[in-house]
Queue: 3 jobs
Job 1
Amino acid sequence: MRVAEFDFHLPEDLIAQEPLPDRTASRMLHLVRSDGTVSDRHFRDFPALLHPDDLVVFNNSRVFPARLFGRLAASPLVGRVEVLLTRQLSREPNDWEALARPGRKIGVGAQIIFGDRNQLQAEVVSRGEFGERRIRFQPVADFFSLVETIGHIPLPPYITRADTPADHDRYQTVYARERGSVAAPTAGLHFTPEILARIRQRGIETTEITLHVGLGTFQPVRVENVEEHKIHSESYSISTDAAARINAAVDSSRRVVVVGTTTLRALEHNALASARISAGPGEADVFIYPGFKFQVAGALLTNFHLPQSTLLMLVSALAGTQAVLAAYRYAVGQRYRFYSYGDCMFVD
């Protein structure tokens, strides 16, 4: 299967640079898997499209300001360097996987100072296979408080402006709780407390899991054949209550409506071994592309994704490549807004 099969043309002016003032005002393309038909809706219609016995599953991961600007201690003339923290290493809590720019200037052994008052200091201790660095921070009393003070929201590279204070709220779901993501689970950005209340008022069951979005979301596909791509793992956790609710829905043939590709990836990875959900932590490294056998997901709410990306392949695995690409071409023609701050698609 060739990566080029998942390409489509997207005019640059359709890439959303700002969020809409009203989260629920986003447009929503409804794709019906059984016949490939699409219809134009708005996200506020989403609760009405749910079945009474559905189970809706959210990812409650919280974005933190993981983009840090600093300088090299031994080379002050280099100018500003940038570090994007992508994953905290559980066995060494002061160690992080990170992306670094300019990469050629930040080698193993480099000492980096962050903050106007040198609040954080770190050393590059190794390089990884994806070009990332492993950096080790000097211990401080409250690391995350300092990061919240000096860090920046890591907006995706296709948003070509600097982050603003408004992004601290807007690039975050209203139900975010568990800190750890370096990118928002963007399908959830459309929800408001009012929309969640409407879902509850209909008696529709909901639950939450946690998957921390990491390096995989920034990793392009550099091979020609899909099967040759190696996907980066991302940490997730599923509570005992969530596992019981999801298994009960699957056992009774109720539809599991998954909010976002991050949620879907965690659930399907967890269910690989036994076709059931097990409570506890995990590392989602499953690469989902057409031909994958889904065990849990019955419907998906998702934003629109990059051409030739692993997330577009995931959606194509659920709904069919030709149907998804036709829906994307339709969305371009109707001038839907694309990517993180853009509109969404409901696949059922």
Note: The chain has two domains: 3-63+168-347, 67-150.
Job 2
Amino acid sequence: MSKSKYIFLKIIKLISILVIFLYKIFIYFCAFLIVIIIRIIRPLILIRIGNLWSFRIGHFAANTELYMCEKDANINAPHKFIFDFFYFEEPISNHQLMLMFKRILNILPSWFLIRIQLINKIIPGGAIHDVGYNSNIDRDIHNLLDKYPSHLNFTFDEEIKGQEELLKIGLPKNAKFVCLLVRDSAYLATYQSEIDWSAHDYRDSNIENYILAIEELINRGYFVFRMGAKVNQPLNFTNPKFIDYAYNGMRTDFLDIYLGAKCEFCISTGAGWDAVPTWLFRKPVLFTNIGPLGYLPTYSAKFYLMIKGHFSIEKNRFLTYSEIFDSGLGYILDSSDYKMKNVKLIENTPEEILEAVIEIEERLSGTWKDSHEDEKLQNHFWNIFQGNLSTISSKAPLHGKIKSHFSTTFLRKYKVWLQ
């Protein structure tokens, strides 16, 4: 390379660096001016900025819906006139959900709002301009899900598209279907492989344990969709009414949302996608194999619950619910902590899952009847639960009014744990 050409390229590079630097200075100067204007007009109009946790579908759905419910309830509203602006965090977990939120929220580019947010934090007195979270991030402590309708709707064209897509993947028109979500390690290991997610292993469950329940639902006239963006293995089960949507290559961002909106109910082990049917579209859900005990989702009458058994290696038996709380296991969120306490989490058996699925199906169809003994068991469980909530160390409460229902068939089988 000639000396003149080398000098020319150096000059070009320096000019590029200078242009980029001046551009950043200009953007931050504009952000500074906007923050000043926002502060000046605050007595008349409060402008706030917030980020949507769009990189994980569970938080994307639940946190955003909770914000809108709280807005309906006039919660976290320190001013009469409020305008909130949001930006998406990359990567976007579901583009259909992003599109639907864009229709009802004020969304601006992240590169611009982040800079305004930064300047606002630097200048004292800016906390009021942060949307923030009134409740514990994604805990419905005000029981708003049962008070307010869903905020998302499909357009006419999306409804047509949804029906066409369902026909393509084998669901007849007007057929009833249930969505099944069983968590394993595949999603986070694939999409965020740079992070060690083994702390969440205690949340995983064996999909094979759900075959009996799938067969029963099919016998009762339902199709069953296995949900998930990424799973470790296909389910070893074949039936025209079972669609292994998570594994068969038919999964799309659009159908993830549409299926969640149109299912009769959902069966889940407590993973991100279940926020779509339960939070966004108010569908009933049977939570199986969930935990920890102190974090049970208690805030909706459409939630039905069943936890894993806590087997003490030291005592060589299962722990009662009171013992789970007393030993500090009620709020453990790390797999290694269970090992440290010599406790092994035991999954619900195929028979237990089957019985719980029959129960929720019959409750929803109006054929289930609780006995007086069943009501006593239910009340006893929640009395134990509420009596131990004082042990929580979190700054924000995890529960409002207890509205969920613990599996009656499970309580009947394990009455001895109600101590």
Note: The first helix runs from residue 3 to 40.
Job 3
Amino acid sequence: MILSMTGYGAASTSFLDKNFSFEIKTLNSKTGDFRIKLPAGLGEKEIWIRKMISDAVSRGRVEASFTIEAPNYFGEYQINTELIKKYYQQLHDLQNELGIPESDLINAIMRIPNVIGTDSLNLTEEEWHHAEQVIIRGLQNLNIFRAEEGRVTARELELRVQNICALLTRIEPLESNRIRRIKDRLRKNLEEFIVQEKIDLNRFEQEILYYLEKIDISEEKLRLGQHCDYFLQLLHNDDEQVGKILNFISQEMGREINTLGSKAQDSEMQQIIVMMKDDLEKIKEQLANIL
């Protein structure tokens, strides 16, 4: 089962006079990018919360927020007098330096963040237990969402790989005609420049065999088929984090398809290879969004 890197999860609950809410959104990213908003008073829990989210998400871009609403809590307002004095002195000096008319600096300073605040909303152990459960449920809902997205992606990936396998079977019937056409083309080109009586047919056949060995595609077909089988096998195992491995396999599939294209020298075969490349590009697009 694969997981999508894109997902959404949320959960909320109430306990006594407090409401706890947790919301998380994830997007695809090659590395971990975590942005978490927590209320004041949970500083000591931040490392634990980040680890819990990191373990659940693994990688990708994460935007999460945890809020606590306490309608009956008003807190005690605190004025940061030292900060006000510093702001006032700096703004007063700047007024004099620039010749700005006198104004009410206090009103402006009071609107600056952190000048006025309330004391932190502390949680009891029982309250924190309920808060923790909200985060856990939110992460579970996120992974339910990502698992469903993963199933849709897996079906699309399976279809594209099966398309490549089907196209691979269409190449084999073309090979005998391909070899015959190559032989005829080489013989015709040779006869245009050399009198037929002077052509050493034995040497010509030897050169043909050597050339056909160089453009033989048996190994490429075999390896491409093996890569497709391995891709499908990983797609349906129980590992949730196979995105990097599948991406590596898709690169190997691309190498074999490109080599087939360079060796084909046949218009019908080239058309099939172009269709393979189209399916492979769609596979890579989908792989960018799985864990």
Note: The chain has three domains: 7-73+124-147, 77-116, 148-287.
